[in-house]
Design a protein that fits this description.
With 873 residues, the protein is α+β, with helices and mostly antiparallel strands. Helix content is 52%, strand content 17%. Strands 19, 20, 21, 22, 23, 24 and 25 form a 7-stranded mixed sheet that branches. Strands 12-11-10-9-13-14 form a 6-stranded antiparallel sheet. A hairpin with a 2-residue loop joins strand 24 and strand 25.
Length: 873
């Protein structure tokens, strides 16, 4: 229990928890890194070789960009990067030992002579004609057992090309060679795939041809009876033919039976793979104008009549494309490949076996520090360290959870200001801070070179990690404190919104009696608006204006009636119970509420009258009874006084007479107090309010009790203000209040203690405060002490009737003051509060003059006394 409340224990647990969490995270990341990258199965040398390979790629690009710069080449050598740049399309004939083979190198002659070509790392960089640069790491030279495979990979980058989009403005047919061309920008591109449909002896048959660039003619690809590809196109062609017959009145001939064999022989050639000359069809009935639908590259269809005829023998041969490298896309656009001129540069380099750790400027160390860090941890037993970190983390965090919310010398759970923040706002804030810190750390590592330096990276990540860990732990502990305190979900914005919605729904159902009328009115008005908008579009604006005017009038009437009800309530609250509301012109709920207020006014008037009548009867009863008792009591007191003056020779008779005198005096005092209490509570005492200096009054009044307090063994301490403080009150009644309080103090204060009387003031009020220590246990509240016949002395061993405080309270109310009693253990405290009075300047001047006159008179009297004394001497 003590350990849970110890601040030192909590701080120690915090430190252990943060350190163990950081250790667990770091070691966990190392373990995950080792598993994902396969470091668990590799030696340090093997892992470093792979990292050095990546560093060589970076170095190779930098060496190429700074080729010819000897100073930069030497700086790279100092960083243990040794390289050479070769300009060649192929490495097949390159001598790596010859310095002349290199465009630039930082290797010595001895190093060149001792080069083992299979251990060279190759990086290919291609500079294209348009100025762009492309690069690709090629692996070690020795990994290519066959130079042909290296040539294939390098050619793909060296021999590059790009695509150009051309618009084919015409489709031409060469009547000399039977070739179909796309014409684009003055050049003729052979259509690479052509399909024709011919209705021959065996029925409709499709002939498909591919263009052979070597033979510069069409080669039969296949012939098929499946004409589904041409069905739609054939129907369109027959429709066009029918329209042509209707216009010309002639029947068009599609083919002639006597030439079918010849046409089929030309179309089919010598079978699949044979070259076919479609120009031979020019002299048959199936010439280009009768081909119907022609399908080009399986994308575009065209009729023979749409072809533009050309004769290649009359066109220069240079306008005809003689090799593949283009195609027709879905948009009927010709896509042509253009070869790009490029120059190849080979950066060959040696990957070092070892780089000294003090070379922080070397990329080998900058890229491999985390690998070395991983193997250093593994050498120190990664799994044992991870296990210890987890155990310490669990124990320290468990203690923090156990101790959360507990404070020394405080019972129960203590909520800090952090724990009082709504849980959903706190959760969003913490998540935002954590994500922001993580993204900031990642951004710094990626956008700067800090990630290349081990100590800087670890220090920065450590600071961010500690910050994020502290925030996370504080958040979780705050959740634990809230759970321990109970009902944690109530301190959330979501809960408050839901509670507000539930309260609203409950309020609606509680007041459904009134709300259903309001809802019905809103629905009715909305329905009328919708009806007007739907059926009276032209008059919608007029309807809207009329509706607004009616609503404004109704709202004004409702506001007037609500104001009348408010005014009636205010009058009743101020005591005017005779006020009555005129409900004749009110409507609905306003009329009901007005009638209820009138009934309340009537009922309250009757209750007040009954109460006043009861108080008068009580006062009259007390006055009459007191008068009837007082008359015989006066006789008893007088006869007792006479007997006390006689000489009584019997001691017992004298003792009885003394008791009779004491009890009759006590009874007389009780009757007087009872009459006074009755008059004070009913307000039948006259009040003569005058300007009163409270400081002077308190000093004079309390000073009269110094002797009585001294006899009771009490020390009086009076504290008042330096300035004069005034109130408007009746001094007689205030003196009576103070007299009752001081008599109570003399009777009930602990002997040997102090009695404090303080005067305090603010801009608007003045307070007189009495404090003393009671000699009897006060197991009663201040409100009960001010009731009649209630005494703090339950055993009633002292004098008193329990009327003094009740009379004091009634008198304070009579002079518009306030009396408040505070009981705190044995401390008894009474506060008398009055409204402060600010006298005018003239009144203050007159008061000062009166004080001056009084002092002069006192001084004069004092002088005369002195003179008389001197004469007597």
């Amino acid at each position: 229990m003590k350990l849970r409340n110890s601040v030192i224990a909590k701080i120690t647990a915090w430190m252990f928890c943060i350190a163990s969490i950081m250790g667990t995270v770091v070691l966990g990341i190392c373990l995950a890194y080792g598993i994902c990258d396969g470091l668990l199965e590799q030696t340090r040398e093997e892992a470093l070789k792979s990292i050095y390979r990546y560093a060589n790629m970076t170095y190779s690009r930098e060496a190429f960009w700074n080729r010819g710069n000897s100073i930069y080449a030497e700086s790279l050598r100092e960083e243990y990067f040794k390289y050479g740049i070769i300009k060649s399309d192929s490495l097949a004939e390159v001598d790596f030992h010859d310095r002349l083979s290199y465009l630039d190198t930082n290797m010595t002659d001895e190093e060149l002579a001792n080069i083992i070509s299979d251990q060279l790392f190759i990086y290919l960089l291609v500079e294209k004609g348009n100025g762009s640069l492309a690069g690709i790491p090629m692996e070690y030279y020795g990994d290519y057992g066959d130079m042909a495979s290296l040539a294939v990979e390098s050619d793909a980058l060296i021999k590059d090309s790009e695509w150009t989009y051309l618009y084919a403005d015409r489709i031409c047919y060469d009547v000399a060679k039977g070739i179909v061309y796309y014409r684009a920008e003055g050049n003729y591109y052979p259509v690479q795939n052509v399909s024709l449909c011919y209705d021959g002896s065996e029925g409709k048959k499709v002939y498909n041809y591919n263009y052979d660039f070597n033979n510069r003619g069409y080669m039969l690809n296949y012939q098929s009876m499946d004409t589904s590809l041409f069905d739609n196109y054939t129907e369109e062609f027959l429709d066009d033919l029918k329209q042509l017959q209707e216009v010309t009145g002639e029947e068009a001939e599609i083919t002639q039976p006597d030439q079918t064999d010849r046409i089929e022989e030309i179309l089919g050639g010598k079978g699949s793979g044979s070259i076919v000359n479609l120009a031979e069809l020019n002299n048959t009935t199936f010439n280009y104008s009768k081909w119907g639908t022609i399908l080009l590259d399986n994308i575009r269809s065209i009729t023979g009549e749409e072809l533009t005829l050309i004769d290649s023998s009359n066109i220069a041969d240079g306008f005809f494309i003689k090799e593949a490298g283009y195609y027709l896309n879905e948009n009927y656009t010709l896509v042509v490949r253009d070869d790009i001129q490029a120059e190849a540069y080979w950066v060959v380099s040696l990957i070092p076996d070892y780089v000294p750790a003090d070379r922080l400027d070397s990329k080998y160390n900058q890229e491999s520090w985390y690998v070395n860090y991983y193997y250093d941890i593994v050498d120190r037993n990664l799994f044992q360290g991870l296990g210890i970190s987890i155990v310490v983390m669990v124990l320290s965090f468990g203690f923090l959870v156990y101790a959360a919310g507990h404070r020394k010398a405080v019972e129960g759970i203590v909520l800090t200001p952090f724990d009082k923040i709504p849980i959903d706002i706190l959760s969003v804030f913490v998540c935002g801070v954590e994500m922001g810190a993580a993204l900031l750390a990642i951004g710094i590592l990626e956008e700067t070179d800090i990630g290349r330096f081990a100590y800087t990276s670890l220090g920065m990540c450590g600071l961010f990690g500690i910050f994020m860990t502290v925030i996370a732990i504080a958040y979780i502990l705050s959740l634990c404190v809230r759970v321990k305190a109970g009902k944690w979900w109530r301190n959330s914005i979501c809960y408050r919104i839901c509670s507000w919605i539930c309260d609203l729904i409950a309020a609606i159902f509680r007041h459904i009696e009134l709300l259903w009328k309001v809802i019905f009115l809103i629905v009715a008005i909305s329905g009328m608006e919708l009806f007007a908008l739907a059926y009276f579009e032209d008059g919608a604006i007029a309807f809207y204006l009329i509706e607004r005017i009616v609503l404004c009038v109704a709202m004004c009437l409702a506001a007037i009636q609500i104001y009348k009800l408010q005014k009636a309530g205010q009058c009743m609250a101020e005591g005017d119970l005779s006020y009555e509301i005129n409900t004749e012109k009110m409507f609905w709920e306003c009329r009901k509420h007005g009638e209820n207020l009138n009934k309340i006014s009537e009922g309250m008037s009757k209750a007040v009258d009954a109460r006043m009548k009861s108080e008068r009867l009580k006062t009259e009863l007390i006055t009459n009874v007191s008068h009837d008792i007082k008359t015989p009591l006066t006789s008893i007191i007088n006869y007792v006084d006479l007997l006390s003056k006689e000489e009584l020779h019997n001691d017992k008779a004298a003792e009885y007479l003394e008791v009779l005198e004491r009890q009759s005096s006590k009874l007389k005092k009780l009757i007087e107090d009872l009459v006074e209490a009755s008059k004070a509570s009913s307000g039948n005492l006259a009040v003569d309010s005058q300007q009163l200096d409270v400081g002077v009054f308190v000093t004079q009044t309390v000073g009269e009790f110094e002797e009585k307090l001294s006899i009771a063994g009490l020390e009086l301490i009076v504290s008042k203000l330096d300035e004069s403080v005034y109130i408007m009150a009746d001094g007689r009644h205030i003196w009576r209040v103070v007299d009752n309080l001081m008599n109570n103090i003399c009777k009930y204060a602990q002997k040997g203690s102090r009695v404090y009387v303080n005067l305090e003031a603010t801009e608007k009020s003045v307070s007189i405060i009495f404090r003393n220590i009671s000699k009897y246990p006060l197991n009663i509240s201040g409100e009960e002490l001010m009731e009649r016949f209630v005494r703090g002395d339950k055993s009633r061993n002292t004098e008193g009737h329990g009327l003094g405080l009740s009379i004091a309270q009634s008198l304070m109310k009579l002079i518009d003051g306030d009396m408040n009693i505070v009981v705190d253990g044995d401390l008894f405290k009474v506060v008398l509060t009055f409204d402060r009075y600010q006298p005018k300047m003239q009144e203050l001047v007159l008061e000062k003059e009166e004080e001056g006159d009084q002092k002069e008179k006192e001084n004069a009297d004092f002088g005369l006394q002195g003179k008389g004394t001197a004469i007597r001497h």
